[in-house]
Amino acid sequence: MKNYIMALDQGTTSSRCKISVAAEAMAKLGVSAEDIASIGITNQRETTILWNKLTGEPVYNAIVWQCRRTSDMIQTIKASGLDRVIKEHTGLIPDAYFSATKIKWIFDNVEGVKEEAEKGNILFGTVDTWLIWKLTGGKVFATDYTNASRTMLFDIKKLKWDEEILNALNIPKSILPEVKPSSHIFGLTEKGLLGGKITIGGVAGDQQAALFGQGCYEKGEVKNTYGTGCFLLMNTGNTPITSNNGLLTTIAASEKGKVQYALEGSVFVAGAAIQWLRDELQIIRDAAETEEAALSVKDTNGVYVVPAFSGLGAPYWDQYARGTIVGMTRGFNKNHLIRATLESIAYQNYAVLKAMEQDAGVEIKRLKADGGASSNNFLMKFQADILGIEVIRPSCVETTALGAAYLAGLATGFWKDREEIKSNGRAPEIFNPDMEEAIRKKKLQGWNKAVKHSFEWEKESD
Ligand code: ADP
Fold it and tell me: Residue 462 above 70 pLDDT?
């Protein structure tokens, strides 16, 4: 009996020995390859690896998604007008964050790569592709739609690698993997690795896996991952929606034959503001303390914190904005500050969600939450109050791994359909809004006023 689904969750800080970790987990559970119905892979997106297929060795270190070394290339792209093509075809706003310029950088800077690519020996992959290739002993060279949609080289409407962008950046098509749906039988693991052949049945980028793991299968459903920053994704159904608010259009994880799209927005500083309270201001010792501190006061005493430490993203898009605290009077104390910092996370999410509603023309009815800071009950309740909708926190907050597992299990028939998955989990926690409308409005007005004070702070005045 195949009773298990294995999820490999490859994050930014824990990459190296996944295969030995998988073997260890199997040994601990007393599970052998025959017991595992399918493997699902989910990964940090955009991170770029080029390797030589003859040696199986990377030609250069993986360039991680955060890396800004190709910012200048993006300026050149903008100056040349290619940015419009990129936006239209890939749904992305050109940035060093995505894989395309990282690939180009390796081609331009690492000796011998061009020559080897001309011989057909160089392969490119995001981390999923690398893992699939390694797990299948070099037999399968593939990625899924969600990961491809983050390379800035994939036409998300035609579902094909984009020749125009490839040509403009001088990237040979021969290095690119085949692109498949997220829930798909990609191949079998090589026998020697995990003690037997196991089907790889699911692949998705981490944020898309979380959207699927949260059960956001229908148009208008949204998840928010509360981590260092916040990552918000809204399922927009089977049409890609172009944002007027600087949100990204991307492909959502879905099953065979059913491509779905998503709008994506992020808040740069969320849990990081709590780290600031702990590490710089040293007014808390531990992030979890903020809940009690916030509840010890009845409000923020009229104060707003705008944690625009590295500018503001969607929908404000002001790279010159800086952190701001407004509205202080003599009665303002550290618990007010802690509360206002937590509230700032909710306000920023509110702004992104309203932008999504506007772009997609749908009303968001509930928000599904996960990530480290979603354990804060005050934050969840305040988020519900400020949005005026329920916020749902699942019993299993490992939604990324869960999503990969669902995709893998659906591909092999471990689960019949999504309905069967829905009936699977334990009851989630629901935070209901009950703030008076007048108070909600007043607080939002205050936030809108406060956020304006942070704008263009760092810009040189003339
Ligand atoms: P990431 O994946 O981005 O590293 P996590 O999902 O692990 O983030 O969440 C960690 C972040 O959440 C940290 O920035 C931390 O300050 C914040 N955090 C963790 N617990 C709480 C809490 N109880 N209240 C508020 N913030 C919290």
Answer: no
pLDDT in tens, 422-450: 777 778 999 999 999 999 999 999 999 99
Q: For residue 288, report the distance from its CA to the centre of ligand 1, in Å.
A: 9
End-to-end CA distance of the chain: 73
**What atom in ligand 1 is closest to the CA of residue 371?**
6
Q: Kindly report the protein residue whose alpha carbon is nearest to atom 9 of ligand 1.
A: 372
Give the predicted TM-score (pTM) of the model.
Answer: 0.92
How far from the centroid of its chain's Cα atoms is residue 162's Cα?
23
| Tokens standing for residue 181 | 């749906």
- Name the residue of 12, 14, 231, 274 whose CB sits within 8 Å of the most ligand 1 atoms, as the mutation to test its pocket: 274
274: number of Cβ within 10 Å: 27
* CB-defined site of ligand 1, < 6 Å: 227-228, 271-272, 274-275, 287-288, 290-291, 371-373, 375-376
- Ligand 1 midpoint to CA 291 (Å): 13
Q: Which CATH superfamily is domain 4-205 in?
A: ATPase, nucleotide binding domain (3.30.420.40)
Measure 273 CA to ligand 1 centroid, in angstroms. 10
Task: Report the CATH fold assignment for 215-393+432-462.
Answer: Nucleotidyltransferase; domain 5 (3.30.420)
DSSP 182-229: SEEEEEE--HHHHTS--EEEEEEEHHHHHHHHTT--STT-EEEEESSS
- Which residues of the chain does CATH 3.30.420.40 include? 4-205, 215-393+432-462
